[in-house]
Amino acid sequence: MKQDSSGSHEAEAGALLPPELYMLPALEAAPRLLGQHLVRRTEDGEIRCRIVETESYGGAEDKGSHAYGGRRTARTEAMFSSGGAVYIYLIYGMYHCLNVVTAAEDEPHAVLIRAVEPLTAHDAELMARYRGTAVRKPHALSGGPGKLCRALRIDKSLNLSRFDRKEGAMWIEQGEPAGSLPIVQAPRINIPYAEEYADLPWRFYLKSNPYVSIMDPQARPFCPG
Fold first, then answer.
1. Residue 160 has what DSSP assignment?
2. Mind listing the pLDDT tens digit for each residue in 161-177?
3. Which of 23, 56, 128, 204 has its CA 20 to 30 A from that of 144?
């Protein structure tokens, strides 16, 4: 961490996220992950993306969470890891979803990464190649959990790896401080089964960012508690 001439702190290029962020409850970590850089190492080189949309799944009490009620199965085991672990699961038998595990070991918190924005034209080109389909709009490239996993070649082989180490195939580096970004919040997507938890504003995204999966006209500015 270095200090610029104005006295504010600026992350060094390529620096990993501070470990404390991964120890936060998912609801606190989800907005703070916006603006950070997800890095995926592939056989064609590294791809760097900015995280622009997240959802919080906050522990055993959250009826939208796979670990609701403390449910611990082969599928959810990654959620009980210490913060910084990778949790990947399959939906509809065909789409992978990428999550950042947060909080302490045995406290099942996770943040779903719903959308990312490539940092350079080269990153976008490589992601479009991996998607294997024509991409006419930004959100069609990596706006949605399944799309971004295809664009970054993410599958269950990466489950239980770590975001807080650079020796693996994927990690998260410091990008822009969340406090400087136009963050809004809205209810999570497609979880009607979560009952009273379904309408809680636990989805966070960068306002007007073209890579966001779904814009909510009722979204409200995020105000940290």
1. T
2. 999 999 999 999 999 98
3. 23
CATH number at residue 74: 3.10.300.10
Q: Look at residue 178 and tell me if it is in a domain.
A: yes
- d(CA 84, CA 53) in angstroms, rounded, equals 18
Angle at 202 between CA 73 and CA 171, to 5 degrees: 65
Contact assessment for residue 59 and residue 65, using Cβ atoms and an 8 Å cutoff: yes
Q: Decide if 1 is inside a domain.
A: no
Question: 128: Cβ–Cβ under 8 A, 6 or more apart, which residues?
Answer: 135, 141, 151
Q: Is 60 exposed, middle or buried (0-12, 13-18, 19+ CB in 10 A)?
A: middle
* Helix H or strand E encompassing 49: strand 45-58
Q: How many structural domains comprise the chain?
A: 1
Distance CA 41, CA 44 (A): 8
The answer to the question of residue 222 being in a domain is no
Average of per-residue pLDDT across 115-140: 95
pTM: 0.93
User: Could you list the residue range(s) of the whole structural domain that residue 175 is in?
Assistant: 20-213
Cβ pair 114, 203 in contact under 8 A: yes
Residue 9 placed within a domain? no
Mean pLDDT of the 50-61 span: 95
